[in-house]
Fold this sequence. Notes:
The protein is mostly helical. The protein is built from 20 helices and two strands. Keywords: Membrane, Transmembrane, Transmembrane helix. This is O-antigen ligase like membrane protein.
Amino acid sequence: MKEKITIVYIILLVIISLNFFDATFLNPTLVNYLDFIAVMGTVLVSARYMFDRKGGLVLPVQIIALSIVFSMVMAYYSWGQGFKDSMVETYQYMLWFLFFLLLHLKTPIRSIEKIILAYGLLYAVLYFFQYLNAHTVFFGKPISGEEFTEERGAIRIIFPGAGIFILSVFIAITKLSTNDRNKWWYLGLATLGLVIPVMQVTRQFIVGVLLIYFYHFVRNQTILKKALILGSFAAGMILLANSDIPMVRGVVEAQQRDAKLGKDYIRVKAGEYFLTDFSPNTLSQIFGNGSPNWGISNYGKFIERLSNTHEYFISDVGIIAVYTMFGIFAVVGFISLWYKSFVLTIPRQYAYTKYYLWYLLITSFTSSSVYHYHYIIATVFALYIFHRSFMENKKWTFISKLLDSLPSKSDRFKTKNFTQEKIYFQSKSHDHSLS
């Protein structure tokens, strides 16, 4: 019964934290209140278990979570922004605390996978619904104007909640390589993982997904096959770049235009400003400036004027925005997570968690994916699954080595039996997801 309640809670928390995919037909005040209550309730409960565990990914997540909370103090100290304004703006970034609650509850990984896959499919369905009804904004917000318009050769809809969709398609490609069941279902979702980014004509989205797909399907091939696939991939990219497909031509032209600007590219100039000139004092250069309440507090009004007069948007500078708002330690936390994603070993059926973290790394320079509420809950799911699978794998590896070191025949016999039991347990763990 307790497990079922937990699963229902997580299902509801996902859709609430995503603001129902930013649905415009819902009462925004009601949605905001519901979101605030759900997120802050989760934070308050989760904080109790923040220091119960260590090892794996615990420390980096602790650093990031505490940096976000402390940034509210810095917003008051450096900008005079009241704690009410800071809380209104900052709570949406605080769902990192959910990581500790999931660890405490030992939430089954398999259940979380199902939730991610279900929401990934829902994301795709709602995206195509919005695409077919582009004249009316049901979800999200147009880049400009009151309705979605053609840009870069396509009706450009940056559909909200991309984090859960990206994680779902990485699960799909992983399952294609490790699971004999439901291959057509996973193949369909994996195909959508290529189609939808191209339809949204967002460069970092396309590049991030393509690189992960390429790595996944090439990494276990022979050198000859790798060379052939790499050559075919390069040839395909060249042909696409020179094709007359409107969406492809739009992306290529945008990239060529921005490349010619060099240091004059607005995101480069914004990044330099937020990195070197924005913070008003030394403490803010270390601990961050906090999250501005856009257009409301004096701090928020300053950020609004900055966007209007210079077109410097904090959401355009990725990890620099993390540094600007939450400080050096938050950036160190992210760097630690990315480092661990490369050096720690986890069972291959959970490789999708690494892919998701690498996607965040690839897109971290010009995208808000590292901190935006459209991504945070997916990030927490990926980190939780990574951490639990790593800790379980580490435990069994340690016990196996310990038993292997025993010299007697009886002990070697026990080791053999243990190895068989370990293989059985791991197969059951995959079915029940370490529950």
